[in-house]
Structures are given as structure tokens and as C-alpha cells.
Amino acid sequence: MLSDRRQRVLAALIEEYVARALPVGSRTLTERYKLGVSPATVRNELSILEDEGYIAQPHTSAGRIPTDFGYRTFVDDLLANDSLPDEERYRAVAEDLRKSASELDSLLEQTSSALARLTDCLSIVLAPTVLETRVKQITLVSLTAFRAICVVVTEDGNVFNRQMDFSIPVGSDELSRIQVLLSKALCGKSLSDVERGLSFGMKRAFSDPLVRAVLDEVLSCIQEGQTGRTHQLGMSALLAQPEFSHTDAVLPLVQVLEDDTVLLHILDDLTSTDEDLSVQIGKENKTEGLSGVSVVASRYGRGEAEGVVAVIGPTRMDYSKVIQAVRAASAALGES
To answer: Which end of the chain has the smaller Cβ count within 10 Å, N or C?
Structure first.
């Protein structure tokens, strides 16, 4: 556990790095922040923080930058002490959203827009029906040995279909067997039920690569039919961040964010705990393409009227601002 002084030095370094996206030196901290200690003490504290993995020095002649571990320590302290300023501002935003939206879809769109504007990051709002759509019937129709159609009927009466292509020949009998297996496992369950099942042991039932491939197509089929219920704004603001100025840094991220199904899995996994807020930093994200970003997510509503609101930004995000914005959005949507 960090001493109070070391925690202040780490917090000042993070604040400076968030603001300027440049490595931070001891002189900068001494001149711009009232740390109450001498420059020599600041240099010593930075050296200790680096040795313990909270900060790193990208180049020998440069200042330091926070590591994922450093950000995690900072965020945990922020949440533990509930030291979030400007709370009234975000409460007012939530109230304005509720008053200005005449229906749910309008509220979802306005909430996503407000989040993107407040945070300069990518905002995502999933409507409750996306997570709680329940499967009523699954039909797999063989077209050729290498192609089939997946048809999914949900309990709320929607019908979704998707074409599937196979790399190996798949006979109609094999397709029927897979249909029976998936129907037994999925019918009556929501997407969030399925994702939690996949996280807690259902994978063993789908160890066959072909069955798992068809399962992914079924989930994609439902998600594609629900794309209008996913409100996503702020991609350009996210990609304008200096961390993503190089193609090799941005491509893995874009590939993940363009896949609505993967995004659904990520957000549902992030909010599958009992905590009201989830903050995943850098390599804490299970999906490799998100190792350079942080995801702040929260559920809103209850039961079958439960959805997800999230912000995705660089690990160098302003966590205080983003956490408050996500909480305000969750409050606005939860009381709608």
C-alpha cells in the first residue's frame, strides 16, 4: 500500500500525463503541484514508484508515465475515497437528459451523445432488449455442403436470419444434430444468460469447433438484428487521441469495436459482477485488441429492463470525469 505522500506524487503525475500526454519529470511536478516536499524528495519518490511498477520511463532521458498498475492504484483510491469533484454538474446532465427525451430510443441516443461530448471518448449504450432478448427457436437450413442459413425466432416475435459459410463440408444430418444441441442449450435464455454460461462452464458443452462456430453465428445473427438498439458515438474523438496516431496501434482496436457481437460480449462480461461500476484498464481487458484502452461500464435498470452504458478511451483517460459521466448516464437511464 502506498504512503499518502507517494499516493499524492502518483496522482499528480497521472493528472499531468492525462492533460498533456507527455512523459512527466520531477521538475514539472515540483513547479506545477503543491506537493509540500523538496525536488530531491520528489525525485526519490518517483524512483521508488518506478521500482515498484507504478510508473515507467519510456526513454532514459525522458520523464515517467503511469503503468496499468499505476492507473489501477489511482482508480481504486479514487473510488475508495469517493473523491470525485463536480458531482453536481453531472447530476444536472442526467436530469436534462431525462427531461429532454420523449421516448427510450431518444434517451439512449442523447445519452450516448452526451457521454461522447463530456469525455472525448467512445460512448456505447446498449438498450435492455439487446441483453435480454430471449431465444424461442433456432433453425439451421442447409443450402450446400459449405453453406447454410441460420434462422432465430425470439420470444418477443422478432425473426433474424444469417448466412453461414463452412470451410469443410457439413451434411444436413450434422446440421440437424447441431440444431438440436443448440436449441436445448439456448432456447428460453437471453444473450446475457448465454454469455454468463459461456464464462462459467458452458464452453465444455461446445468443445466441438464446428458447434462453437455455429453458436457464434447464432449469437451474431441475434446481435445483427438488434444493431438499431446499440447507440455508439465518439469513434472519431477516440481515434484522434495521440495514442492511436499509428496504424499498428489503431487497427486491432478498430477491428474489435467494429464487431458488435464481440462488443456485446465484452460489455456483458465487464458488468457481470455485483459492483455498480466496472473499470477495466489496459491489459486487464480479456480481449487483446482492447489492451491499449480502458473501459468504464455500468448497468442500468433492473431485470429484463437492464441495459449497459460504457465509455472506451485510452488508458490515459480522465478517470474522475469518465466515472462521473457514466454514473450520471446510468442514473438517467435507470430512472427513465
So the answer is: N
